Amino acid sequence: MSKGITAEQKKLVARLKKSSAYKIAYIDTDFIETDDLRPVRLQLELLKPELILQEEKIHSFLVVFGGTRIVEPKAARAMVKKVETKLRRKPNDPDLRRELRIAKNILAKSHFYDEAREFGRLVSEENGHNDGNEFVIVTGGGPGVME
């Protein structure tokens, strides 16, 4: 009886090592992305920012939500003028009429952009009194009022 590993056994070991069952669970993306692991992924989505906040010594924060379509009043006015110019060339175009209604709605809400900017200034000013670790603002990043 031979004590060495046969060629067939070597092939079996090589095949096993390529098997997903042999992969370490946390680097096996096929496994991590299964429906059964969704709760684990959710936990990771919550844990990651929590660890970052701890690392940055952020004690509290404000999450600010807003519409990405709400832009500065100047940009909103320019948008309305642009659509009005197009509409003068094609006064019966229903798509342009709809676009103008949307642009005017955005203009009507554009004052919230300045409100958000003022809110950010007030919170940042307050934050400056406590080493910058309280009331840190978290947003979606932009565009629009989320900037």
Structure description:
This protein has 147 residues and is mainly α. It is 57% helix and 4% strand. It is built from 6 helices and 2 strands; from the N terminus they run H-H-H-E-H-H-H-E. It has a two-stranded parallel ribbon. Helix 4 runs antiparallel to helix 5. The mean pLDDT is 89.
Topology:
Blueprint lengths: L6 H12 L10 H4 L5 H18 L5 E3 L9 H17 L4 H16 L1 H17 L8 E3 L9
Parallel strand pairs: 1-2
Helix pairs in contact: 4-5
Strand content range: under 5%
Report the end-to-end length measured between terminal Cα atoms.
75 Å
pLDDT averaged over residues: 89
Count of alpha/pi helices: 6
Radius of gyration: 28 Å
Low-confidence stretches: none
Judged by helices, strands and strand pairing, the structural class is: mainly alpha
Helix content: 55-70%
Q: What would you call the shape?
A: elongated
Overall number of strands: 2
Largest sheet report: 2 strands, parallel
Widest sheet: strand ordering: 1-2
List SSEs in N-to-C order.
HHHEHHHE
Question: What would you call the quaternary organization?
Answer: single chain
